[in-house]
């Protein structure tokens, strides 16, 4: 199939982009790795595509003592290749390496992944575990939201009319921070059927666990020290969150969460991120 008819514009600056996006039928496009297939299948039928991938405000990187603010149009490949600073002990590059295929990583962007809000995508789960904050700009000005507050559900975000993601702030981890990440896919490059990210950073007092690939929004546990110390509580966590209805999916999630917690105790390689 081919996309339904739409108009196209490439604004010169952020103000022009937010003005164009105020149109009810407008939709931003950056890498297009998620939106492109949806257009071809006519699952998305915008009347106007607003190309934001080259906006200078979306391509910057600001590094500070507390973390790094990445422009929304930074690609997965730039994280993977170390072309941008990493405020974590290499966690971002490892996650980026496991996203789909290199062709996708060359064009797909971190802001686009968050805006699409696919529960099975790597960045929403990872960034929620890292305590990242989404920076937004729109007709009413600028605002910031934690990732878990920005994503409201499956393919649903807090973006308002005319708003756009300008960047993602990732807090700096201590050198001794540990990160466990596991996802289960039928084959390499496919979307995950179950996933979990765990951050243990005692020096910063942070212990977070996030379950992704759910039917709605990610399950975020901000005080996960007890669960990390005793993973036996995983079953109760999933049941209380309503994620134990299907026995097969329940067992898969339980196993993936257990593997992510276990990964905290040992070094992981990019190749081991996908099971």
UniProtKB/TrEMBL annotation:
GO terms for molecular function: anaerobic carbon-monoxide dehydrogenase activity. PANTHER family: XANTHINE DEHYDROGENASE SUBUNIT C-RELATED (PTHR42659:SF2). Its EC number is 1.2.7.4. It comes from the Bacteria. This is Carbon-monoxide dehydrogenase medium subunit. It is an enzyme of class 1 (oxidoreductase). It comes from Ancylobacter amanitiformis. InterPro entries: Diverse_Substr_Oxidored (IPR051312), FAD-bd_PCMH (IPR016166), FAD-bd_PCMH-like_sf (IPR036318), FAD-bd_PCMH_sub1 (IPR016167), FAD-bd_PCMH_sub2 (IPR016169), Mopterin_DH_FAD-bd (IPR002346). Residues 1-175 form the FAD-binding PCMH-type domain. Keywords: FAD, Flavoprotein, Oxidoreductase. SUPFAM superfamilies: FAD-binding/transporter-associated domain-like. Pfam families: FAD_binding_5 (PF00941).
């Amino acid at each position: 199939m081919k996309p339904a008819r739409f108009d196209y514009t490439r604004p010169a600056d952020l103000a022009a982009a937010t003005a164009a996006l105020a149109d009810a039928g407008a939709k931003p496009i950056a890498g297009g790795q998620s939106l492109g297939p949806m257009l071809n299948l006519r699952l998305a039928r915008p009347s106007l595509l607003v190309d934001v991938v080259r906006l200078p405000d979306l391509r910057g990187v600001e590094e500070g003592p507390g973390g790094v603010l990445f422009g929304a149009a930074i690609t997965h490949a730039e994280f993977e290749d170390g072309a941008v600073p990493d405020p974590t002990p290499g966690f971002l590059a490892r996650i980026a390496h496991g996203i789909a295929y290199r062709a996708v990583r060359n064009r797909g962007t971190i802001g686009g992944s968050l805006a699409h809000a696919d529960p099975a995508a790597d960045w929403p789960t990872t960034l929620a575990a890292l305590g990242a904050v989404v920076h937004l700009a729109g007709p009413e000005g600028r605002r910031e939201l934690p990732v878990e507050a920005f994503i409201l559900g499956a393919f649903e975000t807090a973006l308002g009319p005319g708003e756009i993601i300008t960047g993602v702030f990732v807090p700096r981890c201590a050198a001794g921070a540990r990160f466990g990440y596991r996802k289960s896919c039928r084959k390499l490059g496919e979307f995950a059927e179950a996933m979990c990210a765990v951050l243990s950073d005692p020096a910063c007092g942070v212990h977070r666990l996030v379950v992704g690939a759910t039917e709605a929004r990610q399950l975020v546990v901000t005080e996960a020290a007890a669960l990390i110390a005793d993973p036996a509580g995983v079953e109760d966590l999933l049941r209380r969150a309503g994620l134990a209805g299907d026995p097969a999916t329940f067992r898969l999630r339980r196993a993936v969460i257990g593997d992510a917690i276990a990964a905290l105790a040992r070094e992981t390689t990019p190749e081991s991120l996908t099971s």
